[in-house]
Design goal:
Strand content: 5-15%
Order of helices and strands: HHEHHHE
Keywords: Membrane, Transmembrane, Transmembrane helix
Radius of gyration: 15 Å
Protein name: YccF domain-containing protein
Shape: globular
Pfam families: YccF (PF03733)
Structural class: mainly alpha
Distance between the termini: 26 Å
Helix content: 55-70%
Largest sheet: 2 strands, antiparallel
Length: about 130
């Protein structure tokens, strides 16, 4: 079922969101000082392509640098990406068929707001990955 949902997601919503994250990642990597945000964009782009069966967990080793980086991210990109996810989520929830996809957009809101200090893991064993770094 997850595969079917992911394929439908990819066609109607995931490809466009992933392209947006990829574009943001390329721009961030061109500007050398923003490479950590670029790498976060690339991780989120993979998550935006195939979200069903995956979730995000807080990385326990994330420190103050992640918090400061998340504040900068929120000001320059996080707010706009989050508004995109919320808008698309509300639009998709207006139909019965779109509700799972709207919920998937809402599931991406936390990682689009504060991507540093989070990891994307499988929903089958999220507790098994607290030490794994992407």
């Amino acid at each position: 079922m997850k595969t079917l949902l992911n394929i439908i997601w990819l066609i109607f919503s995931g490809l466009w969101m992933a392209l947006g994250y990829l574009l943001a990642g390329v721009i961030c990597c061109i500007l050398v000082i923003t490479i950590p945000w670029g790498l976060a964009c690339f991780r989120i782009a993979g998550y935006a392509l195939w979200p069903f069966g995956r979730t995000t967990v807080v990385r326990p080793g994330a420190g103050a640098a992640s918090g400061i980086g998340n504040v900068v991210w929120f000001i320059f990109a996080g707010l706009w990406l989050t508004l995109g996810h919320i808008t698309l989520g509300i639009g998709l929830c207006l139909s019965i068929i779109g509700i799972p996809f709207g919920v998937a957009h809402f599931k991406m809101v936390p990682v689009s707001l504060v991507p540093l200090g989070r990891e994307i893991v499988s929903t089958e064993t999220p507790a098994a990955y607290p030490h794994y770094r992407w």
